[in-house]
Design brief:
With 191 residues, the chain is an all-alpha fold. It has eight helices and no strands. Helix 3 runs parallel beside helix 8.
Length: 191
């Protein structure tokens, strides 16, 4: 046996087998792959989406028309009510017992000191500014509250009135448990 030729065959046979396997694997893989055409399904979904968008636009148009009619009807009704009878503001009744139960102390109606952060002097400043009830304070902008505080001088700059209208609204609406919980969770009435 010729060992020199055998050494070449040890290298040549695995290379030929590898090349043949690679070619066969490529041909088998290429032959079994099929292109999936989803363009029909995609077009069906696009058509369905376009139909849904058209339905949404139609509903939004109907909603705008209905709300415009409702506003016009409400304006007409309000005008006729204003012309026929004076406006009557309904007042939410004050429940002193519920307030005492939730807050743990006796509460007087429209006592601005219930709002955390408002003391007797600030309450006096708000009364001088025309804000004497919880309802009035709840409808007052925070900027107006800050103006009233600024009118008191430098010593009132430490106060933050951001939550005062919200607290006053809870008091006016008789939401005593919510107010007590909120005041417990917030440090000195600050948001």
């Amino acid at each position: 046996m010729d060992f020199e030729n055998m050494n070449i065959w040890c290298w040549l046979i695995p290379l030929l087998v590898g090349a043949i396997c690679g070619i066969l694997g490529y041909l088998i893989g290429k032959g079994s792959s099929t292109t999936i055409d989803n363009s029909g399904e995609l077009n069906a979904w696009k058509d369905k989406n376009a139909k849904l968008q058209a339905d949404l636009d139609a509903c939004n148009g109907k909603l705008k028309t209905a709300s415009a009619a409702a506003v016009a009807g409400a304006a007409t009704t309000a005008a006729s009510l204003t012309a026929s009878a004076p406006a009557v503001e309904t007042k939410i009744p004050f429940d002193a017992a519920a307030a005492k139960a939730a807050m743990g102390k006796a509460i007087k109606e429209d006592d601005l000191k219930v709002v955390e952060g408002i003391g007797p002097k600030i309450e006096g400043m708000f009364h001088d500014g025309g804000i004497k009830t919880w309802k009035q304070l709840s409808e007052t902008a925070v900027a107006r509250c800050q103006e009233i505080l600024d009118g008191g001088g430098e010593r009132y700059k430490v106060h933050d009135p951001a939550s005062w209208p919200m607290q006053a609204k809870m008091a006016y609406e008789g939401k005593w448990a919510e107010l007590a919980k909120w005041q417990d969770e917030h440090d000195h009435g600050k948001l």
